[in-house]
Amino acid sequence: MPQTPARRRVRPPRSPALHAAPASRPSSLLQRAHLPPVPSTLLIPLAARARGARYFSWLDCRDAVAGGLLERLGADVDALLDDLPTVFQVLWRTRAVKDAGRAFFAAHPQGLGANLGCGLTQHFQWLDVGANQWLDADLPEVMALRRPLLPAWGPRARQAEVDLTQPGWWQRLGLPSRSGAQPVLLVCEGVLMYLQPAQVQAVLAEFAQHAPTGSRMVLDVLTRQAVGRAARHPSVGPTGAEFCWGVGRMAELAAVHPRLRLLREQSAAEGYGWAGIALDALWRPWLGAPVYGVATLGVRDGSP
Ligand SMILES: C[S@@+](CC[C@H](N)C(=O)[O-])C[C@H]1O[C@@H](n2cnc3c(N)ncnc32)[C@H](O)[C@@H]1O
């Protein structure tokens, strides 16, 4: 039976490497990158993937690169690891993305996956099935930090700069046309809640307009009740980033474009076992959507 974050709230021993970092490196790699508030949130999921399994061992994602990245960044992430609900959500969504990716590439072993707003993730470590391809894309300032730390994962992987708020990103990233033979898997986690609602709708519509049949988009969502309240979030608040988009009903996602279908919705509450499922059912009439969840969108064949 999974334990809730509250029951596991034990402060970890400080990592000697991280604790020593500020003294040995007066200006860490991360500080020198001068990331603006939203891009700087990439440290939150990175810390969870690197160190979160000590609290939630059943969600251990076995990230082979995150720990080393944290050390090279010279970041002190103790405060982020104290925010156990967020650590839990990141590990839970990582498992959801891995499961969705494995199912997609089992069906399309030569398909393409693209992680939009990739931050410092390396999902191809889990999803490389031998003949598929992978693209990691984020804002220019993040890619400048990422490239020297995380070179492309072999010849079937590439990296690119993208600003999802600028229409036309599908073509600029060289993603396949709708008539393309191979479907595409898009991953967009921890990103869209920082965009304005109209920008999110444009991102979903661009996926719907261009994606070949069989394509999938896996994204995480926050309840609309969280919009404007990032200052109260223990990890996001200190970055200065704000939650600008949330969902009132999961059906809103597919309503953006006639070609979209909501194939699956998952609530992070499920990860807490029966107690979480019961609480989710209790809140749902008021919230209309999970407090935090993952949606998988598909595209219909033959629609506009
Ligand atoms: C919380 S981090 C998540 C990073 C990564 N997806 C993960 O799970 O570790 C948010 C990411 O969204 C990216 N992002 C925010 N706005 C973006 C935009 N307009 N276009 C592309 N990426 C964006 C940020 O640069 C940052 O890397």
Tag the structure with descriptive keywords.
304 residues; alpha/beta; Rossmann fold; seven-stranded mixed beta sheet; 13 helices; 7 strands; disordered N terminus; binds S-adenosylmethionine
Structure description:
It is a single chain. Residues 1-26 have low confidence and may be disordered. The protein is α/β, with parallel strands linked by helices and 304 residues long. The chain is globular. The chain has a domain at 89-299: Vaccinia Virus protein VP39 (Rossmann fold, 3-Layer(aba) Sandwich). Helix 4 (43-51) crosses helix 5 (66-73) and helix 4 crosses helix 7 (84-107). 43% of the residues are buried. It has helices at 16-24, 29-33, 37-40, 43-51, 66-73, 78-82, 84-107, 124-127, 140-149, 169-172, 197-210, 251-254, 274-287, and strands at 112-116, 133-138, 157-161, 184-188, 216-222, 260-267, 292-299. The chain has 13 helices and 7 strands. Helix content is 38%, strand content 14%. A 7-stranded mixed β-sheet has the order 3-2-1-4-5-7-6. It binds S-adenosylmethionine (SAM). S-adenosylmethionine binds next to helix 3 and helix 4.
What order do the SSEs take from the amino end to the carboxyl end, as H and E? HHHHHHHEHEHEHEHEHEHE
Q: Give the overall shape.
A: globular
Task: Describe the strand arrangement of the main beta sheet, using strand numbers.
Answer: 3-2-1-4-5-7-6
Major sheet details: 7 strands, mixed
CATH T-level topology of the domain at 89-299: Rossmann fold
Name of the top-level CATH class of the domain at 89-299: Alpha Beta
Beta fraction of the residues? 5-15%
Give the integer mean of the pLDDT values: 89
The small-molecule ligands in this entry are: S-adenosylmethionine
The secondary-structure class comes to: alpha/beta
Fourth CATH level, the homologous superfamily of the domain at 89-299: Vaccinia Virus protein VP39
- The CATH architecture of the domain at 89-299 can be given as 3-Layer(aba) Sandwich
